[in-house]
Structure prediction request, 1500 residues.
Amino acid sequence: DTSTTPDAGAAATSEGQKPYVAIVSKGFQHQFWQSVKAGAEQAATEYGVEITFEGPNTEKDVAQQIEMLTTAMSKSPAALGIAALDSQAATPILDDAKAKNIPVIAFDSGVDSAIPVATAATDNKAAAAEAAKHMAELIGGSGEIAVVAHDQTSTSGKDRRDGFTEYMAANHPDIKIVTVQYGGGDQLESANLAKTIINGNPNLKGIYGTNEGSAIGVVKAVEELGLKGKLTVVGFDSGKAQMDAIRSGLMAGAVTQNPVGIGYETVKAAAAAIKGETVEKVIDTGFYWYDAKNIDDAKIKANLYE
Amino acid sequence: MSEYLLEIDGVDKSFPGVRALANMQLNVRPGEVLALVGENGAGKSTLMKLLSGIYVPDAGTFRIGGNKVDISGPKHAQELGVSIIHQEFNLMRDLTVAQNIFLGREPMRGPFINDSALNRQARELFDRIGVDLNPVQQVAELTVAKQQMVEIAKALSFDAKLLILDEPTAALNDAEVETLHRIIRRFITPETGAIYISHRMDELKVISDRITVIRDGEYVDTLDTETTTMPEVISLMVGREVSGTDRPATILAGRETRLEVRNLSTRELLNDISFSIAKGEILGFAGLMGAGRTEVARAIVGADKMSSGTIILNGQAVSIPNPARAAQLRIGYLSEDRKHLGLMLEADVAQNIMLSSLKEISKFGFINGRMLKYIAGEQVERLRIKTPSIHQEAKNLSGGNQQKIVIAKWLVKDCDVLIFDEPTRGIDVGAKDEIYRLLNELAASGKSIIMISSELPEVLRMSHRIAVMSEGRITGFLDNAEATQERIMELATQSERGAKTA
Amino acid sequence: MSTTTSVENGSRSPLAKPPQNRKESDLMVRARASMQQLMAFGSLIVLVILFGILNPLFLTPSNLSDILLSTVVIGLLALGATFVIITGGIDLSVGTGMSLTSVIVGVTLTYMGLPLAFGVLAGILAGALIGLINGVLISYLRIPPFIATLAMMMVAQGLALVISGTKPIYFNDTPGFSQLALGKSIPGLIIPNAVFIFFIAAVIAGVVLSKTLIGRYTYSIGSNEQATALSGINVRRWKMWIYTLAGTFTGLAGVVIASRLNSAQPGQGAGYELQAIAAVVIGGTSLQGGKGSIVGTVIGALIMSVLTSGLRIINVPQEWQSVAIGSVILLAVYLDMLRRKDKSTG
Amino acid sequence: MSTTTSVENGSRSPLAKPPQNRKESDLMVRARASMQQLMAFGSLIVLVILFGILNPLFLTPSNLSDILLSTVVIGLLALGATFVIITGGIDLSVGTGMSLTSVIVGVTLTYMGLPLAFGVLAGILAGALIGLINGVLISYLRIPPFIATLAMMMVAQGLALVISGTKPIYFNDTPGFSQLALGKSIPGLIIPNAVFIFFIAAVIAGVVLSKTLIGRYTYSIGSNEQATALSGINVRRWKMWIYTLAGTFTGLAGVVIASRLNSAQPGQGAGYELQAIAAVVIGGTSLQGGKGSIVGTVIGALIMSVLTSGLRIINVPQEWQSVAIGSVILLAVYLDMLRRKDKSTG
Ligand SMILES: Nc1ncnc2c1ncn2[C@@H]1O[C@H](COP(=O)(O)OP(=O)(O)OP(=O)(O)O)[C@@H](O)[C@H]1O
Ligand SMILES: Nc1ncnc2c1ncn2[C@@H]1O[C@H](COP(=O)(O)OP(=O)(O)OP(=O)(O)O)[C@@H](O)[C@H]1O
Ligand SMILES: O[C@@H]1[C@@H](O)[C@H](O)OC[C@H]1O
Ligand SMILES: [Mg+2]
Ligand SMILES: [Mg+2]
Prediction:
């Protein structure tokens, strides 16, 4: 249900201070997360709330995220925003929030729980399937391709891998995914990795990179090997380097989420929940395929970040 | 030029809980060797460290060539013409001999070190002072004696006015001592002088012009060597008479054999070593540097691999893969290199003394702490180890007192076979006497003792029998009655490939 | 002082020391040792007070309890690492080793459905086994600890992923399991069990280190391994057991983190080793070996978690947090150095 | 004087060794040293051949060139780390330090718009400055290297984020910059400049380590710091310079990675330090200090990148890759140990 807690919000505002929303994301250093943060800050100003935004150093460190959530709860926030690395591991904190009547907004990835009053997220599997669809078209429905993924264990990493491979398996039996390897989202590592894959698979027609760092790594590899135009690259997320690559033709296109929107919607929902207003349970922030043709469209541009 | 090369006056130095020097005085005349003697912990090394700027004195003055100086550090000391060989080695084991000696004074060719010039300089130095060292050999590969030679060569490589030698002969045998004395005599000119610290009374007569005696950090007296007898010096040092040079009784024949070594060889050096030792026997091992005595000991206790040979203990062949097994079989080995192989410098006196015997004082793995302190305290008293507390770190003790700790460790352990490699290295005459007495007591109680020593008088005084080694072989056994320094030297220099040395 | 007494008793042999001297400086030596730990404890208190002033919420019982809880995992790893570091070694495998053991707990409880006690035991034993293998590699195959445990770090990381099928294992069928860490067994107290597990483990580690043979040999191997061997101690065998002991703490950490997260996370753990080592070193244990204490390690671990939590609660922006943590660690260790300032020849 | 002649005449004192011994061991010492490096090189060749058999594509010139390229960044960091490790120290700041220096390059070239050479210089100097600070902390404030560089690791990480505003800085306005690493200056050769930069840096490092004063004192300090000080060497000052030198290589690595990625990535770098240290140690440099070589480090870095690339090209699943790398590192180092087996007291 969407029962919210007027008390908590009232308590915070009665002292003449802005209500405080603690946001704990899955990461911090990626541009993606910085964009989410930007969106969150924008909404914070508009809706008159105070926020903090932090996330673990790597998107593997479930325990560090739990510590961050714990500290956030100690600050008695009026609302809590969370992009859970592992929703089950976060359960005790969610329970605690519920007990204290602190509304929880999930973002980026869904949480397996009834507690969040709203979820602002991308459907990663569907987004990855979109990337697969374009890849299949671009290489003509058959041939060998590879995946450079950012992570083997996180939900986003798995969903973007599986959404892609499952789509191919279901729709394009002639396309063979020769290997899936993981570069941790590190550009250098992903570039070295992609080059090895290309060297080891001379018939390769395309590579899909599952996030910003992975995709740019793949672009680097193609660029360094002088295979521009000979190998199809599709990516995920945006960022200046990816956008440049798409403009220059090194990359065929990518799926972008709407990180600014995710952040914005999260805080907006939090502000509403604090006031006791009803909020939408599922806020689909959407995703878009973008390529050289539509990259400058206003609608797309709004979802890209440098 | 002043009358004295060096004058020290009114020097005080204290460490937490220890007054190392109190109103110390001393002077060195140009052209002389001044011997500095005193018991272990009397303050000799501390004084020398003050002189090289390692420590800062609490009070007192130093004059060099008549000028008052505040020595700020080793480099300053060198600049003042003071060159020191410390009691503990200060060598870089990973560097070569030549690199060690000229560290900080490398000959350069442009921005690069000129290594061939470096090695040439080293060779010239060795030829000049008459030591046999290989400039390009790594110091880690050298025996203790050779390392001492490196230190000596290094000290002489400076253009020093005053040479200070802190127990330079502790690691040397008689032949090497002679070489050193020759080197020193050649160093002394009317402009130079030396301070010579030693516990080997026999050499003072030979090398020194005057002898300064200190006790408990305080100046006692300075004597002219020529007009003084050693017992006088010793009684000034120790404050009592020390017994003479009695020889042990010949061991009773027909005693049960405790340990027998048959045809022991190692890949590196040892060749067909066979000997046996009876219960209650003290077997001395004599030989020149590198003869292989230490290797025999290490091979027996399993510290080094034997390539062939059998060890028979109490009539049974045993295999000893490591010193732990040796200790189980009640065979203990006291190493000649106390700093690297004997002591835990950062650990306290009690822990060092008890290290080998912890199992004996523990139950279910728990150590009886009271027992530990009690036994350690007992040893400190028994060996008169000079320390403010059994909790003092070993590195803060004087060299001789550190050696006593290592001895105490093996006295506590109660082994049946004790192999003592240069056990009295750096120990003062009074304490030596004490240790000799202890060894005799141990033997009398049925223990078997192998005593490796480079001091022939010591070997002669202590051993029932003497095995002499040369070039990895045993060249002969001597009964105490028939042994003399000359006979030992004869066997010690006997070469298998005799033709070569001729 | 000693000279004064010996002068008074001038008649005795100059070698013999008056007995009361010994007692006296005994006390001094001890006093100095405990002072040091008091001072480290001091920096911890200063930090707590500082953060408390900057944000009073820091001092709420619930936040303090959370800080304790957040110390537990790194703290447990650091306990084991203390032993290894005192021997002069290093253990880089504790982080991923912890992940592997938590996966083992997951396999035992969730896949095999065995009772809770088995899972806990399996996790601890798995940790001990990791330590044992480290120990064998280091002692018997003579592989330098850095390399042996680096290799183990990689192998454990891989095996955790392989065994778990690269996905988290959840403990939903074993509801009691999460109570192991998060339950509050002491009525009226908000401090969760994990904290008590840690403190009990610390007390055990402290007793083992200071009162038993393995502890004593830990120090002596670190002080001078060769001398220890020549003293008749089977250094190789003991070293193997010391690493095994350290692994046991890794295993315990694996159990606790699995319980806390109610899941075994195969991908995490890398990076924890540096934090654990940092806690040990901040606590005054020397990487040169031979010196160190469990009390120090506990304080070191607490300093780290107080810092992390405190900077978060006073809302320091995240990019500045690491700058601040780095600087404070420097400052704390520098102050520590200052008062230990012994003479040096450098 | 008479003694001199008697030495020449061979009627030498009995302790002297036969003279031919000296020549012999001269040769032996050298032979042994170069043998060791030959053998390490041997394992590298074995790996290359093995992977070549398992997948012939491994041996294509392009793949081999890519492996060389992938060695560069870790390799450069490892060169600096070699110096530090030979002194008996450690440097954990190289990874994030590299990020910080690449951000500095970004600020110089992109934000300030200065010419390319300034950017390169700024990056290298920034690295040197990081090293200098490490050196001052370690030498003059006596902070243990592990702590000082761990703190620097955190501070550099934070500063990289702060200075860059937590976003990458691109070099699109300095098109020549990416050629620095990726250009192919030697016509007809597919090997990019970065590889040559690395090998030139390695040669310089090798010469500095073996032929200059700073190199000699690096070994000397690692062998026995106190004795070095007693020899009148200003150990503190030299140690400070050694860390500065190491930092210079970090700076160079920052420049190269920025050029290769055509951007400065402020968030990267953590974890690189362990890889760099691993390369050094696999190359036979001892963490105890006193021993090591640049050739060894280069071989160590190559072994790591050959392994990583080889396992990928033969399609070992990723989770098994780390298991395999760990195991092969163990094996390589174990074989290395076997032939060095010196006397032991264990
Ligand atoms: N760094 C130190 N800290 C504490 N006490 C010290 C320190 N150095 C020396 N001492 C103490 O000062 C006293 C004098 O020591 P010193 O080394 O000068 O004796 P020594 O005459 O050289 O003896 P030895 O003949 O055994 O070498 C000893 O009691 C020793 O324990
Ligand atoms: N650490 C070492 N590394 C290499 N060679 C060594 C080492 N120690 C000893 N040796 C060599 O082994 C041989 C035997 O030395 P050892 O120490 O056993 O002789 P020793 O008879 O005990 O003489 P010393 O009076 O020097 O102790 C020598 O030739 C020496 O060069
Ligand atoms: O969920 C995250 C995401 O949406 C972004 O693309 O990069 C990292 C991911 O883990
Ligand atoms: Mg002395
Ligand atoms: Mg010997």
Q: What stands out?
A: The longest helix of chain C spans residues 19-54. The beta strands of chain C are 169-170, 263-264.
